[in-house]
Amino acid sequence: MKPYLILLSASFLGLAACTQPAPPPQVQDPYANQGNGALYQGDLAGGTLSGEATAQYFNDQVGNTVLFAANQTTLSGDARAILARQAEWLNKHGNFSAVVQGHAEETGTREYNLALGARRASAVQEYLVAQGVSSDRVRTLSFGKERPAEICSNESCYAQNRRAVTVVSDTGTGT
């Protein structure tokens, strides 16, 4: 091959390497200058759009736990206030059901505490039903002393473990 052809080929390759990439294609928005912005004209599905219709809201804002005095199943004024809020929330959100979990402190026998937890859960269930919540949406369960909220052996821990916790779940069958 002749040297001038090699030099000419190298020059073409060098020029080809220096060329700019093609610019991206321009996109034209046909609605850009029509004024009023986007307008949705479809049908929206019914339902609750607020953040209140969540189990997290129930736990954080309504309150899911009521406390009891030692060896008691009587609802205090504070407990009734929390349960009234729970009943209002459950009546508003018919697609949720509740399981009331009864608990007891670690003192006493296992059998005694299971029965005490069951009576506490029943007291909460009866209050919610009396406030208008359908009885088929509220179940009870007793853990006795098996699932303590606090683990220690003094009165402040015992007080935290004498409780009923309302756990709500979305059944998707609301009214």
UniProtKB/TrEMBL annotation:
Claim: Cytoplasm is one of the keywords in the record: no
Domain OmpA-like span(s) in chain numbering: 56-172
Oligomeric and partner information: The Tol-Pal system is composed of five core proteins: the inner membrane proteins TolA, TolQ and TolR, the periplasmic protein TolB and the outer membrane protein Pal. They form a network linking the inner and outer membranes and the peptidoglycan layer.
Signal sequence residues: 1-22
Main localization of the protein described in the UniProt heading: membrane
Organism: Paracoccus saliphilus
GO biological process, one term: cell division
A Gene Ontology term for the protein's cellular component: cell outer membrane
Keywords in alphabetical order: Cell cycle, Cell division, Cell outer membrane, Lipoprotein, Membrane, Palmitate, Signal
Task performed by this protein: Part of the Tol-Pal system, which plays a role in outer membrane invagination during cell division and is important for maintaining outer membrane integrity.
Annotated family: Belongs to the Pal lipoprotein family.
Nucleus listed as a keyword: no
SUPFAM superfamilies: OmpA-like (SSF103088)
Cell compartment(s), UniProt: Cell outer membrane
Protein's recorded name: Peptidoglycan-associated lipoprotein
Membrane topology value: Lipid-anchor
